[in-house]
Design brief:
711 residues; alpha/beta; 7-stranded mixed sheet; 3-stranded mixed sheet; 29 helices; 62% helix
């Protein structure tokens, strides 16, 4: 165990693994291509048929890459695990030394209660390891809503008071949110990064146990050549049927793919941007993100920064490992199909930008492959759509155009060629569904593992249900991603919006579903009717695509219902080990959030600007907010403008103010001090009714626990 993995895992061995991996991909693709070419080759290949064959090769190779990853993962797991795993460099109970570590959590208009109660859980769990002295916590806010900012400050202060976190938990609000999350992290590293040897990045919905955090730092200490160590977070806390199916699929099927990824990538892994540990010094030195040529969406700032940072770290000679075996790392997924699509819209533009980097000088081949697979994750959608549209056109030319109808019919309608077509279809389905089948069989072969998913019968029923859900969602996601790629190619950028992480109310309503899926529904109906008129056999071949598109509105609404998710849980469907035997940290988070959300929100007229009201009205919050501001010396012209704003705010109330004006006042320490003084000294008749109501309710509001922060 004293030898580094780099010494134990020779270059020749890694080359053999990769040769085997990519050879199998090539072999599967070659066989499928031969089948497809034989189907198309009747009287030579027409222009459409050549395009079909070219698209098929690209798309099948993408499918084969995923299948081969699962295949080698099954091989590795079946023989007891990979001998070349970074976790093997550390004995299970070894008490290795630790280095100074910053745990950073970038936030942007997130649910304040969820952020700080999650942070409380992580802090307490780390405290119980008796290793807390090696860690500091940083909440890095880019929130641009005035009330949100103040609520974050109040939550930070109360958390520090309750857990003794002063000097261990820090809060920073950026004045200018430049370059989104990547810029937020870069700003932290410029200001405080050199004080720490390591940085662990968490998302606003991340939870990591203290044991996992300590293990990551120990692994980095034991392996000084490693620059980034990425964990595989489990998706938890799903309430809707959509979220529960996604969580179940990730939990059951991911071990095969994680083992397969580690098999061929080894020390040239990838970075997913969160639930990972980074060695700060080389990250600062080598991972500064360049601006891409041109303007958005292809140029400008890089959105999907994590893949690029991993490539730059490898370019500098540092190892990037995937530690899929580290337990105690969790995140939350989107609650609905529409929320998932909104996230994919941002990821699509970021991954499309990587096209610039595929030919960049100095990158390792493995890094280029990671970037290429990220691009293909989205480009494959319009390619699949184009492939099927060309198939439709091919059938049309064979059936309806007189000069081609006399020739041998297409394989879609030629009964003599159906066995070959069915064989190709079965081969493709085998590559898509065999990893799922193998994962289920593996779990059924281990009674304890099956019990963690609710038992054998429930596991099988859940796997069948998830396969049906994924089959319905695949065409809809294909349509979404094809649209996103097209918009990116047309130069339409994407704005930075808050990600919704829980299902509020009754899920997706009909209006939102019709607006979002209306085009897909019309497209699916028209395509299906046309294909049936052309050739009924072709329609049945195409039905797994056009039927879900035509039904995308009710599918999206049904999957967004928390009630259906709760019913599925009661029936024992889509259960995960984190639900049947939840870790203490997740149980503690649920209890804390239930306590927070139990309290009633402020009365409705005050709710929109509750944070601003606290900062002006409450002497405790006002003093805290002013103390956190950076002192600035405004010009005389600025002082006059701020004085006019203050007078307007007290006279008219905040309803007539823009968010920019409110943020300007909150950023000016002199104005905040003056507002608090003037509010309490001004005669009631000179104040807006909003402020009079706020002052009447002040005593009532301050009797509720300050930890009850409202979404």
């Amino acid at each position: 165990m004293d030898l580094h993995l780099k010494d134990r895992m020779g270059k020749d061995r890694l080359n053999r693994r990769r040769t085997l991996f990519f050879t199998v991909i090539f072999a599967f693709t070659a066989v499928a291509t031969w089948f497809m070419a034989d189907l198309l080759w009747q009287d030579g290949l027409s222009g459409i048929e050549i395009m079909l064959l070219g698209l098929f090769v690209i798309l099948f190779a993408h499918i084969a890459a995923g299948f081969c990853t699962a295949l080698v993962g099954f091989y590795v797991l079946n023989r007891g695990g990979d001998s070349a795993r970074i976790v093997r460099t550390l004995a299970p109970d070894e008490d290795a030394p630790l280095g100074s570590t910053a745990i950073v959590m970038p936030v942007f208009n997130e649910d304040v209660s969820r952020v700080f109660e999650g942070l409380r859980v992580v802090f307490r769990s780390l405290q119980e390891t008796r290793k807390l002295e090696h860690f500091d916590f940083f909440v890095l806010s880019d929130s641009n809503q005035p009330g949100q900012w103040v609520r974050e400050e109040v939550a930070w202060l109360e958390l520090c008071k309750q857990v003794g976190g002063f000097g261990k938990i820090f809060y920073r609000k950026r004045r200018h949110a430049i370059n989104k999350k990547a810029g937020n992290i870069a700003d932290f590293l410029r200001r405080w990064g050199r004080r720490y040897r390591y940085m662990i990045v968490l998302d606003a919905d991340s939870i990591m146990t203290g044991k996992a955090l300590v293990q990551l730092v120990q692994l980095m200490e034991r392996n000084p050549e490693v620059g980034i160590l990425q964990t595989a977070p489990r998706i938890v806390n799903g309430e809707t049927l959509f979220a529960r199916a996604q969580s179940f699929a990730s939990r059951l099927y991911s071990p095969l793919f994680l083992a397969g990824l580690n098999y061929w990538q080894q020390h040239e892994g990838n970075f997913w941007g969160h639930n990972a540990i980074v060695r700060v010094e080389p990250f600062i030195a080598h991972c500064s993100l360049p601006d891409l040529p041109g303007s958005e969406p292809f140029g400008g700032r890089i959105l999907s920064h994590d893949f690029v940072e991993a490539a730059l770290m490898r370019k500098a000679g540092w190892a990037v490992w995937l530690a899929g075996e580290v337990e105690g790392t969790y995140e939350e997924g989107p609650p609905t199909l529409i929320d998932s699509a909104k996230r994919d819209r941002r990821w699509c533009q970021g991954n499309m930008q990587h096209l610039w980097l595929l030919s960049a000088q100095g990158l390792r081949p493995a890094s280029r492959f990671h970037l290429l697979m990220g691009v293909m994750g989205y480009v494959s959608a319009p390619l699949w759509l184009l492939f099927m549209l060309l198939c439709t056109l091919h059938v049309f030319t064979r059936v309806k155009v007189p000069e081609t109808a006399a020739h041998a019919p297409s394989f879609f309608g030629d009964t003599g060629r159906w066995p070959l077509a069915l064989g190709l279809f079965a081969f493709t389905m085998l590559l898509l569904f065999l990893p799922k089948f193998v994962s289920v069989v593996r779990a059924l072969g281990q009674p304890e593992e099956a019990a963690r998913f609710g038992g054998k019968r429930r596991l099988v029923a859940s796997a069948i249900g998830e396969s049906l859900v994924s089959a319905l969602l695949a065409p809809i996601n294909m349509a979404f991603n094809a649209k996103f790629v097209l918009f990116t190619l047309l130069g339409q950028g994407v704005s930075w919006v808050t990600q919704r992480r829980d299902a509020e109310g009754e899920g997706t309503d009909w209006r939102e579903a019709i607006i979002t899926h209306g085009g897909q529904t019309i497209f699916g109906v028209v395509w299906g009717v046309c294909s049936f008129i052309l050739s009924p056999p072709f329609f049945f071949w195409l039905s797994p695509v056009v039927v879900p598109l035509a039904l995308s509105i009710p599918i999206s609404i049904l999957l967004s219902k928390s009630g259906l998710g709760t019913a599925a849980r009661r029936a024992g469907l889509f259960l995960t080990p984190e639900e049947t035997a939840p870790p203490y940290e997740l149980k503690r988070l649920h209890q804390n959030l239930a306590e927070c959300y139990r309290h009633l929100p402020p009365i409705e007229p005050l709710r929109a600007d509750y944070g601003l009201m606290q900062a002006v009205l409450d002497p405790y919050v006002n003093a805290m907010h002013v103390a956190l501001l950076r002192l600035r010396r405004p010009t005389e012209e600025s002082r006059e403008w701020f004085a006019q704003l203050r007078a307007r705010l007290l006279r008219d109330g905040p309803a007539k103010f823009t968010a920019k004006e409110k943020m300007s006042l909150l950023l000016d320490a002199e104005s905040m001090i003056a507002l608090h003084r003037d509010l309490w000294s001004c005669p009631a008749e000179e104040l807006a009714e909003w402020w009079r109501l706020a002052m009447r309710q002040y005593n009532v509001l301050t009797t509720a626990p300050t930890t009850a922060l409202y979404r």
